[in-house]
Amino acid sequence: MSHFAILCFKQSVTFNKYWLRKCLRHYLTCHARVYSTGINNHHKNYIAKEERADRRKALRLQVLQDIKKTKRKVEEIIEKENIWTVPNFLCMGRILTSPYLSYLILSQDYQVALWLLVIAGFSDLADGWIARTWTSQASKLGSFLDPVADKLLVGTLFLSLAWVRLVPIPLACLVVARDVALVLAASYIRYQSLPPPKTLSRYFDPTHATVQLAPTYISKINTVIQLSFVAASLAAPIFHFINHPVLEGLCYITALTTLTGGLSYLTSKNTYKFLRRKASTKSSN
Given Cys at both, which of 4, 170, 179, 264 links 216, Cβ 3.0 to 4.6 Å? Predict the structure, then answer.
């Protein structure tokens, strides 16, 4: 029995060694296969990341090149000009003065407001005279900035004077409504004059002159009458002629010229002109 048991034990040990070797070999083969698969996947992911980075760099370079080409095309079409001129500074001065004038009127400091309005009126005459006398001081932006400054000044004055009961409220509403309509029309013309692509940065870039505005003769007369009526209304409480018949007559004349001036922009064909760069036509020849 002991000899038979020893023989069986030796056979079982040999059998177990055989299966242990086989299992170990199978384990090592599977482990090596998994390890090599992981390395291959990691390598593939690394290559894919590099390819995506290269594609992003190429796309970024392409976008930058497209932007540069677009800028060059825009500069060929749109005329750039010098906006740092004396008339433009005077217009900006009138724009910045308007809120302070309104504050003086609401505070019933009519004397200081009247003097400041006189200075603003002289600046309006001065910027036009400078632009006509020295061509280097004329700009397409000035043709847009000057009427905007006038309308902002006049509208602010009419609203403030209507608040303190020195100007009829219907007249103030008429003046402001007409000026808002004109400003919206000028903004639309500016948008239409821009060549594609039409972006906000180019729309609000004052150095890109794409349109030139020209006020009608009736509108110029209306601006003078409006400023005269505002000055008279400011002087009325100072010199004690509120509700004077002459002032009431000037009020009706202001309303009539305001309506006529607004209609003149609808009937006239020379109120604006689209601009294109002249150098581009010369280079094409």
Answer: 264
